[in-house]
From TrEMBL, chain A:
Pfam family, one: Cytochrom_C
Keywords (A to Z) from UniProt: Heme, Iron, Membrane, Metal-binding, Transmembrane, Transmembrane helix
Transmembrane segments: 22-52, 79-101, 107-127, 139-159, 191-211, 232-252, 264-284, 296-314
Keyword set includes Membrane: yes
Protein known as: Cytochrome c domain-containing protein
Domain Cytochrome c residue range list: 362-443
InterPro entries the UniProt entry points to: Cyt_c-like_dom (IPR009056), Cyt_c-like_dom_sf (IPR036909)
Lineage start: Bacteria, Pseudomonadati, Bacteroidota, Sphingobacteriia, Sphingobacteriales
Gene3D superfamilies for this protein: Cytochrome c-like domain (1.10.760.10)
TrEMBL record, chain B:
TM helices/strands, residue ranges: 15-39, 70-92, 104-128, 148-169, 189-212, 233-251, 275-296, 303-320
One Pfam family of this chain: Cytochrome_CBB3
Keyword Transmembrane helix carried by entry: yes
Ranges where the Cytochrome c domain occurs: 371-450
The keyword ATP-binding is annotated on this UniProt entry: no
Protein name: Cytochrome c domain-containing protein
InterPro entries registered for this protein in UniProt: Cyt_c-like_dom, Cyt_c-like_dom_sf
């Protein structure tokens, strides 16, 4: 039963940011942009490869096309991974508490990213390098890429769930595992928008890749022409952009109100406009003749890139708005905790390990108390616990206090069946004397 | 304290990091840093020994290319992902420590990242342009020069990362000047580099020999030649590896003692440390035998002969990493943060107030007889769970049963006496941070664990209970009161 919203206010790491916040934010957005382009190419590329290879079962030319795209996935995925480290570092630094809390709350799924992506990567290599070997077993071969596509489709959900959950500390108390965080509002619309982007960016990439002068196109394909493949690329991009526009609108409409501001809406609106513009140019290109297929290419590419910058920027603004108040409160809480900690440090409570001194024991009072504090965890009066009982010690060291003290400081190992005792050289000599006095006094 | 606690109750949280990190180190050292110079050298030999009318010996070149292919595939999949995996797993298990380190070492990691990106791009160019470069001698020589560049870039990543590792091991300097330079100047830096460099080469060579036995036909001429070259490579690096290992081995106890409060090392450390001695001798003699065998009887070397030394030299790397981890204890950041993720400077406050009061996530903040065991569970999660499980690897029950007798009912009184003093006898343990009531709650929980055998779920499945004292309402009240008091103080002035 939830009677109140219980929003935790953790203390932040009490160390300054390594850079001014604006610079870290810039680094985050820029490095993330590069990362996501290659992620788009990796995910989109594998989807297109799968599609083309299935089509290639009937039309051999598509099989060749699939192979050419497959060869780019393994390169793009390597770049995607290394480029992901910089935004990861930056978001960890900027939003330490929020990001790590979201990670822990979805911990199982979060760590599964590592083995799952590794498997998907290995599958893409297997798929690429077994192209000719498995030409007789196309079904299995397509199964390999289909499996890696499935993994590639799943992983973004984990990331999106995390970057979504981190913005809502008020939900942290209600989340029980990845699945419950996955169904928080806005995760799925963002996911489908992302998939649209993967398809769109890959479509544009296909146009560029097949238009390069030094690409030996004519040696690879025997019926496809460059224009035909470029048209395929444009069509793919068209589908992707349309999906982006549809799901982007849903993202905008379902944004939880917490971080929404007019600026966020404006910039997202501009971003949407850029997509529509790109869509319009692609449409015009498709309608045009083969000779004029490159006419709008750079405009389209730049519009999509500008969209990414705007969209990334607006997401960052949203995140900033959503967390602003919480961050301020966390900062004050951290400061007040540090003040308390400082005060406690300057006037510590009696450390003395709660020495319970029983004055009635007279001369042995201190020794008994010290023994209780440091030794009784392992030694009892007449029973073997971890080490031998006190009575045995007395028998061994009767009348030889010096030797007993030397042993306590640096013990050896006498009894094979027991653990070796650690040394206690840190106990001051006068205390050791008291302890020895107590040990040698027992009856 | 301030993060939901991810917890693996069987595998052990540290173990998760260790597995990922050790796989990464093995791949990084054995298949990148040590392997690429070896491959480049062999590629060059192919050109040098080419028939007069050809650029390179094509059969030979193909064999070397295939070996590179394996390293390329493994480094860009398992290697790259375990590298990222270290970040992921440390973020889950040890968020406060990595969160602190990253605020200080942002630039170090950024530099590391730039070098890392360069390395990946170079490795892709090197591998993907291999076949094309065989078209002209000029291109081939350029390609080989490229391999040399790549070798240097890989080695530089090692130079930087060892410094970051070294910094974390070096006590004291965190509190004084928090600079990466300390990572380079600390006493364990050079020994580590002197050890890692030749061992990487050694592992690369042995792994290369293993690949030769896979990719070449038995009794073929190139196989004999390739095995002999691998033998020479291994023989060349083994003395350096032995010297580096001894150098490193010798500074370890000093480094460890510097962190611990007592002059006596822990027994667990001693055990591992002793084992290490045998590993140095074992790995060194195995490599020498393998190398001499390869040089003298190359035709007798097959997969079965190489696979065991290969596993052994990889294990050699792994065990050093394990001991190195010991050096750090009881801290995770020397003299600043204990391995339970609590800062040393906050201990007096915890001693005064108890830890539950300041924990963001705890189901109990006021201990009563009714909620004692629950509170004990919270204390366990906050102060023990980074290294101990309830039932799995390094379980708290095992630890106490090892002391007090297997299967015997644990005595709460004895544990409550032992825990506050344990850091004195067991120097690798951080001091217990809580107050007396929390200590009693903890031992009551441990006792119940022993009786019930129940397990403990981490935040990834059980979620978190938010301590109302550290939720918005109370925190806001506290801050308002604080502000009001400050105002009062000002007016009275």
């Amino acid at each position: 039963m939830l009677l109140q919203i219980n929003t935790p206010v953790p203390k932040d790491i009490p160390l300054d940011l390594p850079l001014p916040e604006w610079l870290l934010v810039t680094l985050l957005i820029v490095s993330f942009l590069f990362h996501i382009i290659f992620i788009n190419l990796m995910v989109g590329g594998s989807i297109i490869t799968l599609w083309a290879q299935i089509k290639g079962l009937k039309n051999k030319q598509y099989d060749l096309f699939a192979y050419e795209i497959a060869k780019t996935i393994t390169v793009n995925k390597s770049i995607a991974v290394v480029l992901g480290v910089a935004p990861l570092l930056s978001i960890n630094t900027l939003y330490t508490v929020y990001f790590y809390s979201a990670n822990a709350l979805t911990g199982f799924a979060w760590i599964m990213i590592i083995p799952l992506v590794t498997i998907a990567f290995l599958l893409t290599y297997l798929h690429k390098y077994s192209w000719t070997v498995m030409s007789k077993h196309r079904g299995i071969h397509i199964g390999i890429i289909a499996l890696s596509v499935l993994i590639f489709l799943f992983i973004p959900l984990i990331f999106l769930t995390n970057v979504n959950l981190m913005m809502f500390p008020e939900k942290w108390g209600t989340v029980k595992g990845f699945l419950s965080a996955l169904v928080l509002p806005n995760v799925f619309p963002r996911y489908f928008e992302f998939l649209g982007a993967c398809i769109a960016v890959t479509g544009i990439f296909i146009v560029w890749y097949n238009g390069r002068k030094n690409y030996p196109f004519e040696d690879i394909y025997y019926t496809f022409t460059r224009a035909q493949i470029k048209r395929i690329g444009y069509h793919i991009a068209l589908i992707g952009l349309a999906a982006q526009i549809v799901f982007g609108s849903i993202v905008l409409m379902t944004l939880p109100a917490k971080g929404v501001s007019f600026e966020v809406i404006e910039i997202m609106g501009v971003a949407g406009g850029l997509l529509v513009l790109a869509l319009w140019w692609i449409w015009k290109t498709i309608k045009d003749t083969d000779e004029r297929l490159d006419k709008h290419f750079w405009k389209i590419a730049i519009a999509i890139l500008a969209f990414m910058v705007c969209y990334g920027g607006s997401r960052q603004m949203y995140r900033h708005n959503a967390l602003d108040k919480h961050q301020r409160m966390m900062a004050s809480h951290t400061a007040s905790f540090q003040a308390m900690s400082k005060e406690a440090r300057e006037s510590p409570v009696e450390e003395e390990m709660d020495l319970v001194i029983d004055e009635s024991l007279g001369d042995l009072a201190k020794g008994t108390a010290l023994f209780q504090a440091s030794c009784a965890g392992c030694h009892q009066l007449d029973q073997q616990l971890v080490g031998p009982p006190i009575k045995e010690m007395k028998q061994i060291y009767e009348g030889d206090e010096e030797k007993l003290i030397a042993w306590i400081k640096a013990p050896g190992k006498k009894r094979q069946e027991l653990m070796q005792m650690p040394g206690f050289p840190q106990i001051p000599d006068e205390d050791l004397k008291e302890i020895a006095k107590y040990i040698l006094s027992v009856e | 304290m301030d993060f939901p606690m991810f917890h693996l109750d069987w595998l052990n949280d540290r173990f998760l990091i260790a597995v990922i990190a050790i796989i990464h180190v093995m791949i990084n050292h054995g298949l990148a840093v040590g392997f690429i110079p070896y491959i480049t050298w062999l590629e060059y030999k192919g050109v040098k020994n080419a028939p007069p009318d050809q650029i390179t010996d094509n059969k030979w070149d193909n064999l070397i290319y295939n070996k590179m292919k394996v390293a390329f595939i493994i480094t860009t999949t398992i290697g790259a992902m375990t590298g990222v995996g270290i970040w992921f797993s440390v973020a889950l298990v040890s968020p406060s420590s990595i969160g602190s380190l990253i605020r200080v070492f942002y630039w170090a990691w950024f530099t590391e990242w730039v070098v890392f990106v360069t390395e990946v791009v170079l490795i892709m160019i090197y591998y993907l342009t291999w076949k094309n470069s065989n078209k002209s001698l000029n291109a081939k020589l350029k390609h080989i020069r490229f391999g040399a560049f790549l070798s240097i870039a890989s080695w530089i990543t090692m130079v930087i990362i060892v410094s970051i590792l070294g910094f974390m091991m070096d006590p004291g300097n965190w509190n004084t000047d928090k600079s990466l330079l300390n990572g380079f100047t600390n006493p364990i830096y050079l020994p580590q580099l002197a050890f890692r460099t030749p061992v990487a080469m050694l592992v690369g060579g042995v792994f290369g020999m293993l690949l030769t036995t896979i990719f070449s036909r038995k009794d073929s001429e190139i196989r004999t030649k390739a095995i002999k070259y691998a033998g020479r490579w291994v023989l060349l690096w083994t003395p350096f590896a032995i010297a580096g290992a001894i150098f490193y081995w010798n500074v370890m106890p000093e480094a460890m003692k510097a962190n611990m409060s007592t002059a006596v090392g822990s027994m667990d450390f001693e055990q591992y440390y002793d084992l290490l001695k045998y590993f140095i001798v074992g790995a060194a003699s195995l490599s020498i035998i393998l190398a001499i065998w390869a040089l003298a009887k190359p035709k007798k070397v097959n997969f079965a002969v190489v696979v065991l030394p290969c596993l052994f030299v990889f294990g050699f790397l792994g065990i050093f990493e394990r001991v190195r981890e010991f050096v750090r204890k009881p801290y995770v950041i020397g003299n600043y943060m204990y391995s339970n993720l609590l800062r040393e400077e906050d201990y007096p406050l915890y001693k005064k107030d108890g830890i539950l009061k300041h924990a963001t996530y705890a189901s109990v903040h006021e201990i009563t007889p009714e909620n004692k065991v629950m509170a004990g569970r919270d204390v366990f999660i906050l102060t023990c769970s980074r290294c101990h499980t309830t039932n799995g690897i390094n379980s708290i029950i095992d630890v106490f049963e090892n002391m007090y007798g297997k299967g015997k009912p644990l005595n709460e009184q004895a544990m409550a006496t032992y825990i506050p003093a344990m850091h004195q006898g067991r120097a690798f343990m951080p001091p217990f941070p809580g107050n007396k009531k929390e200590l009693e709650a903890l031992v009551a929980y441990i006792k119940q664990l022993q009786e019930s055998g129940e397990s403990l779920q981490g935040a990834q499945s059980a979620g978190v209970a938010i301590n109302p004292l550290n939720a918005v309402d109370e925190v806001a009240k506290g801050l308002e009161a604080e502000a009001a008091q400050n105002k009062d103080n000002e007016t009275t002035k």
